[in-house]
Design brief:
The protein is built from 13 helices and 13 strands. The longest helix has 33 residues, at 152-184. By secondary structure, the protein is of the alpha+beta class. The chain is 49% helix and 21% strand.
């Protein structure tokens, strides 16, 4: 490294990056572009350098893009482009390419430029369509099972076969999605971490679907109607939970921009916690047991959706970072004015040095790099706690475990 200067490193990274990189001036003229961008769009390097940004925008919105660019120039900041929207670039041959784009303003020798990082997401789009189709098929099969009232034994057997085939296809699609996401980690660190987070959070409801569907196939006798209905209900609940989780994590940018607001209502706290613990117990390792205790009143006035997301994050972490055959203790205490939650595990613990940065976005403790995760869970928890004006206390010691206590004042 002593014989390589910083400029050479940056130049090599720019030229050899597998994602497209385009640098334009404030008027939209392309000043630099790497080979990946040119290849992705079907141009030679020379051809691409002669274009404006509007030349690679789909024709149907090209006329409006100038105004979008002017608006961005007025409030320059690093951010993803078109958050929540499907973005496309237009190739030289007129075909459209699904992309993800991140924008970053830079200033060189007093002159402002915009750097666009472009990722081809054609493979992921195809996988997402397949997953959605399988999910819809799963919902149709579940609905058919619920409405079956005649010839139940034979019909349930037939539907179970269809359901098992759908689950096998869904598992196959999920594996393909996982492979695609792992490949994209090398293209864009920020984007891949976000996608990994979404994939991580999908596991709990998917596990519920798979386990309940497998159990349905065992309850073929008419006397097992209640058990079948129970697991069908869990499948529907898990599918709905998938949609809720996707909505929550796609709104992460809104959370950081202050666009998510609390919605307080009265609800039964132990009922909510027991529901979360029951679902997450299915994800536990061999011998792990999630033990819940409650003290005080049962009804509280808080944002139940944020509370549920906090519990899912913290209990999932306890399961993930604890060894087999260990207990995870969850406790809640409700007083007249306050509500406290404590999740305590006997896991790998967190060093004092890492605890200082634990709630930063994408931070991973040094002893957690070989354990799957994105480093976003505690960042989200901390943000939700702040939204509800709560306080958070963390105590941890390496190889002895971690205890996290959260306290809220109840709304009147």
């Amino acid at each position: 490294m002593d014989n390589i200067n910083r400029s050479e490193i940056i130049d090599t990274v720019f030229k050899d990056a597998t994602e497209g990189i385009i640098v334009s001036d404030m008027d939209g003229y392309i000043r630099m572009a790497n080979s990946s961008a040119a290849r992705m769009l079907g141009y030679t390097d020379v051809e691409l350098h002669a274009l404006k940004i509007e030349d690679i925008v789909p024709s149907k919105i090209r006329g409006r893009h100038h105004q979008h660019r002017e608006n961005y120039n007025k409030e320059l900041n690093a951010r993803p482009m078109g958050a929540g929207l499907d973005l496309y670039a237009e190739r030289k041959d007129g075909t459209q390419l699904p992309v993800e784009i991140s924008l970053s303003p830079v200033q060189i020798k007093g002159k402002k430029f915009i750097v666009a990082f472009i990722i081809d997401i054609t493979v992921r789009k195809g996988i997402e369509v397949t997953v959605n189709e399988k999910q819809q098929e799963l919902e149709r099969v579940a609905a058919a099972l619920i409405t079956t009232n005649e010839g139940l034994e034979k019909k349930v057997s037939d539907r179970t076969k269809v359901l098992q085939e759908a689950i096998r296809e869904l598992e196959k699609s999920r594996n393909e999605l996982k492979v695609a996401l792992e490949k994209e980690k090398d293209l864009n660190d920020l984007k891949s971490r976000f996608i990994s987070m979404a994939s991580h959070e999908f596991r709990t409801p998917l596990t519920t679907i798979l386990s309940s569907a497998s159990l349905i196939s065992e309850y073929v006798e008419t006397s097992n109607n209640d058990k079948r209905e129970k697991h069908i209900s869990r499948i529907k609940s898990a599918v709905n939970n998938l949609n809720d989780i996707l909505s929550d994590f796609l709104s992460l940018s809104k959370l950081e921009e202050g666009k998510i607001h609390t919605e307080y209502r009265k609800f039964d706290l132990p009922h909510l916690v027991i529901e979360v613990v029951s679902d997450l117990q299915l994800n536990a390792k061999v011998g792990q047991e999630i033990v819940y205790q409650h003290e005080g009143n049962t009804e509280v006035i808080l944002d139940s959706k944020l509370i549920k997301n906090i519990l899912i994050n913290l209990i999932n972490n306890a399961v993930k970072f604890s060894p087999e055959n260990k207990k995870i203790n969850v406790s809640t205490i409700v007083n007249d004015d306050s509500v406290s939650f404590e999740i305590k595990d006997q896991g790998i613990g967190i060093s004092l040095e890492d605890q200082k940065h634990l709630f930063e976005r994408f931070f991973r403790a040094k002893n957690a790099f070989n354990i799957q995760g994105t480093g976003l869970g505690l960042h989200i928890v901390g943000s939700y706690v702040d939204l509800m004006n709560g306080s958070l206390e963390l105590n941890s010691e390496l190889e002895k475990g971690t205890a996290i206590k959260i306290t809220f004042f109840q709304q009147k």
